[in-house]
Write a structure and sequence with these properties.
The structure is a homodimer.
Chain A (H helix, E strand, L loop, with lengths): L3 H26 L10 E7 L21 H8 L2 E3 L2 E2 L4 H10 L27 H7 L3 E7 L17 E5 L4 H5 L3 H6 L5 E6 L5 E5 L8 H19 L3 E6 L21 H22 L6 E7 L35 H4 L4 E3 L8 E3 L3 E2 L3 H9 L15 H4 L10 E6 L2 E7 L2 E8 L6 E11 L16 H19 L17
Parallel strand pairs in A: 1-8, 1-9, 2-11, 3-12, 4-5, 4-8
Antiparallel strand pairs in A: 2-10, 5-6, 6-7, 9-10, 13-14, 14-15, 15-16
Helix pairs in contact in A: 2-8, 7-8
Chain lengths: 492, 492
């Protein structure tokens, strides 16, 4: 039995223990979130990259290139087989940046004219949200949300940007004599920091087209190194120009796959992803970095039965089992590859077919980073951090509105899709239905068999979200396409 | 230092050691291969099961059911993405059993009449080859290679058989009044042992259709248990009736997936595969058992654009990115899921897109089991044990002849396919070409874009195998369809 002294010792020790616990408790809960606690975010965003390309979706070797690094990323994290996007470059980038349907921001279509377009200053981008939460923000790649003063990435929340303001089509034609004589302005690769006018680095022509993604990778790696050294949490948005036409792999990869340029390019992307993952390991920050690998929309060309391309260096992409190309309302346009790794937070090897939309990343990443979701406007994204971390099996999203341009083509709801309009490929013919067509996406991934009869119950279940969406567009009028700054939509 | 006695002891010990080594050396090399050295073989063979179904090929959850056990099997072994079969039930089963093109054995098509058909006694089946090599051989499932005396599995090398002689169509109609009145004989589920007449267990009707695969699994497990106890190497051929129409999952799985009967059936198959793998673990023989998971041919029905079914309970299958259904010359018919596990021998997680044909299993399994490949006849299968074990990257097969029934539809060579005839689905229209059409399978998995121009070099490279094959058919005339025993083809 303990004597008097024994009790005193015990008392002293337990008093110290109580103080220690109290201190730890305060450190955990009452101090502001420290830099170490905010996860870095690396968002790799491919261009026109179909669901069927990576090995983790049954592609890889059948596409002529084993995608070992991309598959490793997926195996170490969460793979979503039903991750959806808007079906054109500009709308998809608008939606992921704002967490809102692109139509709300006046970005329903890829801009074809020369006027002002992109995001008005009033919009809050993912970069702005994360910068406000204390993040260093870098973007390396294709923007496609504005090419005029005040509309560049460094005007929209990014501290740094290297890349192209528009798309990669321009590399094909911007040095053609007819183009030059037309008086249209050539596109430049740009290098920018927040607060200064972006510098023109070089024209974006076919000589640089195969090289750009190498430079984007180097810039992203350099940025991550600098932030890791500074101990600052970072957000890297890496919208590669691959696999947008023209298909031109870097000289280091030409002939490497033995299966032609498309497969060479797949190897190249996979190799760059490997470098990015290696960098995180070398910097010792892999554990505290969320890595997302996805794409803006489905493939640009399939076999001629659906939609072909005349650009010499365009090669058929693969939407896997899903139908059609970008610029359609089919699953081939909407579903893109998606993998998300966060070691220690996301269980390795998880796969889910729950419906998720790119808009959902905004509020979910806000939740992970301590960022603020704007409350003065409509945010269409669903906060699903619990789902992404595996705390619940349900994503919380039952469906979404299927836009093609500014048109509502249909409504996706659970495993069903109701089509009001269809277009068989990006260059197909538009068909409009007086009676919508209904497909079951699980039994009929090619969306061919209209099963509206007998499933007349599906519209009853699927349409309320459309009614609500249309009412919301009426109540909160969208930013008009081409609106100039300063602009603020009414009621918001 | 050792004295005299010490040296003597050492001498005696070393003498004993030398004898022991000599004995071990003799046991290893000069004794006939012992039972322990021969790997067991479990061949799971699904019916009309498309490339796109299992999770390991990008299916699984998008088909409404996570296929965790099947994926585990693939992850622990080798996955072949370019494993090819003949495109109908009977020819495919003929080819896998004999290592020969089905046309050589008179089994080019599924038999529609009531006469004698199947394998003549002269053919040497995989079961006969393995029985001769000392294996216990059990078959549980659908045969489709003969339904008359002398043509049952137990007449063709299997010690035991439980299952149906023909196909699962018969479960749909064999109790219909018109069928009964037609005087046609009803199909029975049969139970047989070598040397006796198969017993009729029960009619194969819709009441038993959902239950049969449960019984096949139990029988296979019981057989493996008995052989493991007896210390005898075994070959189990398990041609399940799933996923042939009608799609009727077992009552234990009805509603289990929440995504309808097709997905319930996927869960069921996956669960049975899990039971088989668990059995191998429990028996302590997983290390010494080759498990192969594959199928006879591609899916029976896709969306209406390609080929639909009117049978009420048939549901669209998935060929993944590949075109069309069974009974065509497209990749959707030819490529089936393939996984092969052999712990310690096959490196886990290996994936290859090398061309392999089901005929190649005969000589390759002969090599693994010490079996003899007949030398008195044409064997079309390529011995590729070195490739399967990962000792070489190349399968040794550049291509094969694409049969549809007894017709040569085309030639597959590397990533190219030359089509002389096409049929857009199992019930499609036959198109015959005066100038063959050429597709690139890697860039154009849907086989839509004829690239004969400019690739006129491909026929020059692809056609020699066809010339050789046709010459071989002339020199060694095939067994005529419907030949009765005893029959021996000339020149063989």
């Amino acid at each position: 039995m303990a004597g008097k002294e024994g009790y005193q010792t015990l008392y002293r020790h337990s008093k110290a223990a109580i103080w220690l616990l109290l201190y730890l408790w305060m450190a955990c809960f009452s101090l502001p979130a420290s830099a170490e606690e905010k996860p870095n975010i690396l968002l790799v965003f491919l261009d026109n990259f179909g669901w069927g390309e990576p090995g983790f979706n049954g592609g890889g070797v059948i596409r002529g290139a084993a995608t070992l690094s991309i598959d490793r990323l997926a195996n170490e994290g969460l793979r979503l087989t039903n991750f959806n996007v808007e079906v054109q470059c500009t709308p998809s980038r608008s939606a992921i940046m704002t967490g809102r349907y692109a139509v709300r921001s006046g970005n329903g279509t890829v801009p074809l004219g020369e006027g002002v377009y992109g995001l008005v200053q009033w919009e809050v981008t993912m970069a702005e949200m994360l910068a406000e939460a204390g993040y260093a923000t870098g973007m390396f790649g294709k923007w496609h949300l504005g090419r005029t003063e005040g509309r560049f990435p460094t005007d929209q929340g990014f501290d740094e940007w290297y890349g192209v303001p528009n798309s990669t089509d321009e590399s094909v034609y911007s040095s053609l004599p007819d183009f030059v004589e037309s008086g249209l302005s050539e596109t430049y690769v740009m290098d920018a920091t927040k607060g200064s006018v972006p510098k023109k680095v070089r024209p974006y022509r076919l000589d640089y087209r195969p090289l750009i993604d190498r430079d984007l990778t180097d810039r992203a790696i350099g940025f991550m190194q600098r932030q890791a050294e500074a101990g600052k949490p970072f957000f890297v948005y890496l919208p590669y120009t691959a696999t947008h036409f023209p298909t031109m792999p870097h000289p280091d990869f030409v002939g490497k796959s033995g299966n032609g340029p498309w497969s060479d390019l797949l190897l190249q992307i996979d190799s760059y992803v490997g470098e990015l993952l290696d960098t995180l390991d070398q910097l010792g920050i892999a554990q505290n970095t969320i890595v997302i690998f996805t794409a803006d929309n489905g493939p640009e060309a399939l076999s001629s039965g659906e939609s072909s391309m005349t650009v010499e260096t365009a090669i058929h992409g693969s939407a896997g089992p899903w139908r059609s190309t970008l610029f359609t309302g089919y699953e081939g346009a909407l579903r893109v590859p998606f993998a998300m790794r966060w070691p220690g937070k996301i269980e390795p090897g998880r796969v889910s077919d729950e419906i998720v939309h790119e808009m959902d990343l905004f509020p979910s990443l806000a939740s992970f980073s301590g960022g603020k979701v704007p409350s003065d406007r409509v945010i269409d994204g669903v906060e699903m951090s619990g789902f992404l971390l595996g705390q619940t099996d349900k994503s919380g999203r039952d469906g979404f509105i299927v836009y093609m341009g500014n048109d509502i083509f249909g409504v996706k709801w659970k495993n069903w899709k109701l089509h009001f309009k269809e277009q068989t490929g990006w260059n197909g013919v538009l068909r409009e239905y007086t009676m919508p067509r209904l497909y079951n996406l699980m039994s009929d991934p090619q969306e061919r068999d209209n099963v509206l009869f007998p499933h007349t119950w599906v519209p009853k279940a699927a349409l309320p979200q459309l009614v609500e969406h249309v009412a919301s567009l009426k109540k909160y009028p969208p930013v008009p396409t081409g609106a100039t700054d300063p602009y603020r939509p009414p009621n918001q």
